[in-house]
Fold this sequence. Notes:
The complex is a heterodimer.
Chain A: E1 4-7, E2 10-13, E3 19-25, E4 31-38, E5 42-51, E6 54-57, E7 64-66, E8 76-78, E9 87-95, E10 98-103, E11 107-111
Parallel strand pairs in A: 2-11
Antiparallel strand pairs in A: 1-3, 3-8, 4-5, 4-9, 5-6, 7-8, 9-10, 9-11
Chain B: E1 3-5, E2 10-14, E3 19-21, E4 24-26, E5 32-38, E6 44-50, E7 56-58, E8 64-68, E9 73-78, E10 87-94, E11 103-104, E12 108-113
Parallel strand pairs in B: 2-12
Antiparallel strand pairs in B: 1-4, 3-9, 5-6, 5-10, 7-8, 8-9, 10-11, 10-12
Amino acid sequence: DGGITQSPKYLFRKEGQNVTLSCEQNLNHDAMYWYRQDPGQGLRLIYYSQIVNDFQKGDIAEGYSVSREKKESFPLTVTSAQKNPTAFYLCASSIPSTVGAFFGQGTRLTVV
Amino acid sequence: AQSVTQLGSHVSVSEGALVLLRCNYSSSVPPYLFWYVQYPNQGLQLLLKYTSAATLVKGINGFEAEFKKSETSFHLTKPSAHMSDAAEYFCAVSEDTGFQKLVFGTGTRLLVSP
């Protein structure tokens, strides 16, 4: 079945450590996105990529980095510069011919 | 800049009652509008979308929404609530035709009581 796989589902890290969240899709979608979800704030766009080897900052990119070396993969690194990294992270993908994005199941990151 | 306002962070209904979740948008161009549903610790599932075709859009699980340009609204309704409808609902807007950079509202949690 086609879909978006995010791993791990739960992630715990110590403060000051970098951590990488995985996002893989087998939908052959061109565009991929990372959103951050906090209670009462909806979803906010961190980074997005329309094609391989190219990506753009979203609304809250500070403290995050991404790469897009393959069409199916868009990993997100939460760096130590991110001041409040504890959140639910959602990856999504889309294609121009279909209006609407498809979402993965999310990764809940807790920094202790 | 585009934006979305969802009135009411929580809405409570009884099973069998009408569900009405409100969404107002702001956009400088004809928008694409979406409703997504999220169950606890899950990703988002697309309920329905408006793409400038019919103003009344039917989605999954018996939900529908009506695009009203004069009111800049896209409210979500369901005639009869079911216990399984209890979840968080997000309205979103996009102005992009090529790819879907979405702007989300803050969400409305629907509570359904027996």
